[in-house]
Amino acid sequence: MTASVAKVMNESFTVAVDGSYAARLTTRAGTELWYPERWTLGGPEPYAVPLPVKQPEDPGSGVLPLADGRVLIARPAPGHHSLALLYPSGPDTGELRLGTVETDELRLLPPAPCGTRAYALAAAPGGRATDVWQVTPGAPRALERVARIGARCFGGAWLDPEGRLLAVEAQGPGGEGPTKTVAVDLAAGGAVSPLLQITEQSNDRLLLADPDSGLLLVSSDAPGEERLGWGVLGSHRPVRFPEVLHPSGTRLTPIAVQPGQTLLPERCGVAFRVDAAQGTWPAVWRPGLRELRHVASPPGWLTGKGLWTADGELRVPYSTAHNPCGLARMRAPLPDGEEPAAGTQRRPEDPTTGTGTPAPGADTPPLPAPPAPRTPPRAAAPAPAPASAPPSSLPPSPPSSAAGPKSPPPSPDPVPPAPPAPSPGAGEPPRQAEPQQQAGPPASGPGGDVTALQHRGHGGPPSGLLGSLVRRAVSAGGTGSFGALGEAARKPVPLQQAPLPTGTA
Q: In 188-269, where do the E strands start and end?
């Protein structure tokens, strides 16, 4: 398999919002004939269903699985993109054409929280604006433009469980100037408001967002160089840029965040793709841990892809000639002093492999506790039972697995095999006392967090990361935080601009 073919297969792999299905573009062995493939992930073992149509697909097509098992495909063509739904229909593939969007550039957004609608970013004529298109199968208007943003936009992350607020990266006029993250209210005519602005000239991007816990993974060059940071939606605490997420000679890219941790951001697991001189492999981290836990990738890992279950199991997809559809399962450690959720058990450590290897900079101070609950907790979805294999902590370099993966099952109901890649073990260092929040921007000591984004009395109460939330005219009278049940959604306001002290990088 050539590198370009593998890249398309990996980048096109997308998981439905509830983790029940996935889809990707793939080819038949020895050919360049592309077709969509749907993975069923909800059974005891994953299996793939090919969805070819009469003509081969363009490798630039986008695919997105819906929660009902159908796969949305966006096909590029000169001057427009056509959208259709594909689904198994006996031995053939059924196809429902939805319409076309007149644009040269269209990209499907991550799955919407509802699971039944889909959204896409399309470059408006002239390239100086971006349209948000809503795809609603079965509606009188399957394709509808719901917002226009007066900038070139990239990225995309959902901020609320209802799929109303969308965060995108917006470039300056003419593609010049810094890139900022803005929030688009799709239920209010596409109203746009600033979301993440650390300094006036910094490039501030939102990489991942978890609507349940409020955990946000950001990237910014405000500390003097491009760094990864984390914060909590609606919190008064600033963005934090821990050294553990800035290891020397290594690039980290967040790829998946754990759902279901309602108002518990420090328990929320994050999976990273690690790129270093030794190769590429996954790693896991939680804000409540002071280490980055490296794990070995299975043979045929769909590089940069992974998904979490609500109870903390990381599932890493892989595809080999022996098993074209597989999931390696592993479990990340909880923060110090935490216990697994009810109904789950902490797996024993594998004595043959020892503890996980920390990343450079693992001696950073403990991260602050999450803010006080802002809304009554929502009931979390029942957590699936964890796999039965014992865990192990794996070294930072990705060794090859001695055991080959299993053959694909002929039906969705086989006995599941043992997971090929278990989790890191326990043994985290004891948690130190939490430092008090300083009144002004502190200087960062060696190996400490770059926590330079404090408020300097810009009028009114401090807003913290994505700040306090202001009421819209249509939602007057609400007093809870963002995402409160029974209240209309509110527009986040950006982080107060504050100069960074010298020496924080």
A: 191-196, 204-209, 215-220, 227-232, 251-257
